Amino acid sequence: MQLQAIYRITVFVPQSAFRNLVDGVKRVFPLGDDYYDSVLWYLEDAHEEFRAGSRANPTRGKAGKLHQEPVSMLVFSVPRDEAMLERVIQEGIKANHPWEAPGLFIEESWTLGMPAKQE
User: Fold this and answer.
1) Helix %, strand %, coil % for the chain, to 5?
2) Sheet of strand 3-14, all strands in order from the earlier edge strand to the far edge
3) Which pLDDT score is estimated for 102?
4) Whether 73 contacts 42, CB under 8 Å
5) Cβ-count burial of 45 within 10 angstroms (0-12 exposed, 13-18 middle, 19+ buried)?
6) The pLDDT value given to residue 118
7) Which of 12, 26, 58, 71 could form a disulfide with 103 if both were Cys (CB 3.0 to 4.6 A apart)?
8) Residue 119's pLDDT is what?
9) What is the Cα–Cα distance from 93 to 89, expressed in whole angstroms?
10) For residues 26 and 46, what is the distance between their CA atoms, to the nearest angstrom?
């Protein structure tokens, strides 16, 4: 068994912006390895709730009012490489996400690597 060090990334995104965000991330990193690409998981039926403060500039909702809306939860991984992580966050997520501050969670994790190809 071979474990690979990864960053597991979870991001919440309005359903209307989901595909644009995924495509943006995949332009930075194809989400896969030599065996598969476009590897991700998502739940379409998540919900977001927040109340923006007076200093916020929300894309949706209004300051001082409770806002709720359906969102998708996207989970994917990238190799544990800080430069790659920074590019995925800046060029893939932040550049393609409509929120002022995306709901973004990053964890250092491990995954099973694929066995070496037999030549």
Assistant:
1) 25, 40, 35
2) 41-51, 66-79, 3-14, 103-112
3) 93
4) yes
5) exposed
6) 61
7) 12
8) 61
9) 5
10) 22
Q: How far apart are CA 87 and CA 28, in angstroms?
A: 7
d(CA 56, CA 87): 25
Give bridge partners of residue 14 from the DSSP assignment.
Answer: 71
Give the tens place of pLDDT for each residue, 8-64: 999 999 999 999 999 999 999 999 988 889 999 999 989 999 999 989 888 888 989
N residues, the chain: 119
Among the listed residues 108, 114, 89, 109, the one whose alpha carbon sits nearest the alpha carbon of residue 36: 114
Write out the DSSP string of 39-53: --EEEEEEEEEEE--
Put simply, whether the predicted model's pTM sits higher than 0.85 gets the answer yes
Q: Phi first, then psi: give them for residue 91, nearest 5 degrees.
A: -85, -30
pLDDT at 16: 92
CA 53, CA 63: separation in Å to the nearest integer?
A: 5
pLDDT at residue 116 in the model:
66
Q: What are phi and psi of 78, to 5 degrees?
A: -135, 155
